[in-house]
Amino acid sequence: METPTPSRLKSARKAAGLTQQQLGMALGMEPNTASARMNQYEKGKHAPDFLTMKRIAKELDVPVAYFYCEEDILAELILELGKLDTLQLERKLQEFKQGK
């Protein structure tokens, strides 16, 4: 099975309204190589290490787990849960545990 990271990275970047170059530059990459590096990540030719992925997730305002989750529906849930604050997350967790 292929890693879901490349396609999720592309989707999250587009949802944030950024070009590959803009995202790469926001991460501190050189302007002349930023687009090419991000393209390699999105094509799956190279994979960013976990710390880089955390920086990408922060820049795109999505949980880092979204990029690694195998199941699409669970990835969507991660995205939605990532929009909640800690108190809201605790409530959701209790609801899940209670079967609501």
UniProtKB/TrEMBL annotation:
TM spans (from-to): none
Origin superkingdom: Bacteria
Domain HTH cro/C1-type intervals: 9-67
A Pfam short name: HTH_3
Record-linked InterPro entries: Cro/C1-type_HTH, Lambda_DNA-bd_dom_sf
Signal peptide span: none
Name of the featured protein: Helix-turn-helix transcriptional regulator
Organism: Pseudoalteromonas neustonica
